[in-house]
């Protein structure tokens, strides 16, 4: 895989995807105001918030870092981002998922196997 240097870190602790399209004339202060007023969250916690425009060909990520906002912006030349459908306003993501989204993958399809919890071995389960 190609190294990407200007990307959200995979170990970013809190990442949220805002599902509704946003007016991309908004800069860092406008997006921070959206986080605070529409989502009822503090934009100063260090959480990363990802937004897209109506055409789904641009992404802005907003994050507070110590003494100011970091605004990450990516505009696709030809294609569109595979943005999850609007259900709840926010969708929590992992660092890996936000980078998959930036690479063009449909993150709603990238789900691993479910975690299984067993108390004891069933008699029908046999491994030689």
Could you describe the 3D structure shown?
The protein contains two helices and five strands, in the order E-H-E-E-E-E-H. The chain has 128 residues and is of the alpha+beta class. The mean pLDDT is 87. It has a five-stranded mixed sheet. Helices cover 15% and strands 23% of the residues. It is globular and about 60 Å long.
Q: For the CA atoms, what is the radius of gyration?
A: 18 Å
Mean pLDDT: 87
Q: Major sheet: size, sense and barrel closure?
A: 5 strands, mixed
Question: How do the strands of the widest beta sheet line up side by side?
Answer: 4-3-2-1-5
Taking pLDDT < 50 over at least 5 consecutive residues as the criterion, the unreliable ranges are none
Query: What is the total tally of β strands?
Result: 5
Strand content: 15-25%
What best-fitting shape do the alpha-carbon axes yield?
A: globular
Q: State the helicity in percent bands.
A: 10-25%
Order of helices and strands: EHEEEEH
Secondary-structure content class: alpha+beta
* Number of H/I helices: 2
Report the span from N to C terminus.
38 Å
């Amino acid at each position: 895989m190609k190294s990407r240097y200007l990307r959200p870190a995979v170990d970013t602790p809190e990442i949220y995807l805002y599902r509704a399209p946003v007016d991309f004339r908004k800069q860092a202060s406008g997006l921070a105001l959206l986080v605070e007023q529409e989502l009822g969250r503090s934009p100063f916690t260090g959480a990363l918030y990802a937004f897209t425009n109506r055409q789904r060909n641009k992404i802005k990520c907003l994050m507070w870092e110590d003494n100011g906002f970091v605004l990450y912006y990516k505009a696709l030349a030809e294609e569109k981002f595979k943005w999850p459908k609007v259900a709840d306003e926010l969708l929590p993501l992992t660092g890996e998922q936000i980078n998959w989204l930036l690479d063009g993958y449909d993150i709603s399809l990238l789900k691993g196997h479910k975690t299984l919890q067993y108390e004891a071995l069933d008699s029908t389960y046999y491994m030689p």
